Amino acid sequence: MAREFELCPGRRVGGDQPCFIIAEIGQNHQGDLDIAKRMIRMAKDCGADCAKFQKSELEYKFNKKALERPYTSKHSWGKTYGEHKRHLEFSHDQYRELKKYAEEIGIFFTASGMDEMAVEFLHELDVPFFKVGSGDTNNFPYLEKTAKKGRPMVISSGMQSMNTMHQVYQIVKPINPNFCFLQCTSAYPLQPEDVNLRVISAYQSAFPDIPIGYSGHETGIAISVAAVAMGAKVLERHVTLDKTWKGSDHQASLEPNELAELVKAIRTVEKAMGSPIKQLLPCEMACNEKLGKSVVAKVAIPEGAILTLDMLTVKVGEPKGFPPESIFDLVGQKVKKNIEEDETITEQVVENHVKKVKC
Question: Which one of 9, 54, 137, 358 is at 20 to 30 Å from 125 when CA atoms are compared?
Fold first, then answer.
């Protein structure tokens, strides 16, 4: 079983712990602090464990030419990509305000540090864990520096190979044992045939000592629920207040009613996973009493007879007698009294019968 660790104060992940659900607000707040707070409140009200943003120090994430290139997309908030990103980027003070708000309403708050300077700020902000976005998973110097901060890490794996993920594991593990991998495909929205949930199982086999999770960009909730049923211990989904808003992430995000339904479905599936031990349960007793079958005399059987298989059959009987799985054990047994045709075979009519214990 994958080891557990404390991802946030008082909240462990892995092992038999419930799935930790991250509502990825990202930059779906449209650059508006009030909308961002509404989204944090929405995440809390829908039952998510954590509200997450994306923090960049733009001059450290992009070079000058990238920031100066024209950006004419219908999703643009400025003439250049730099203007667009600056519109969506909250200041340090605004981040402090958002974190304080999250703490006041009782939901964990963190962000993906999209560059090394952003990680420095988030460390100063005292977020409970670092989220490593897929774009930095193969950025090994970034990973080393982030791991050395000592905070738990959640590492997405979009656009990566299994070989790269082995390298990531080998870099992070000796420095910081408290991390997990999320299966992820970086497409928005993600088509079902590109999800590859079986990678979750592959990660569980390749990295058995860390929790494995899932970061989804698909529409709807079914695939994410399936990921949890497969053992995902951390789940991240993008969220929005309105899928029609400007921005490329909104279409692949969950609206409040969908997020609430996802959380409810996950908690239901977790209850349904139950125990690997197969046995008759207390809740089945009424059905077993009504419909459970017993061994019945197929013919009249005289006192002293030795039971043979052709003397016996199986029916719903009254009263209850030997269960059907005992029929072969009864063969060769001696009966102590006359048994009428169609009468239930009970312990009282079989000589020296020793009950076999079910395993």
Answer: 137
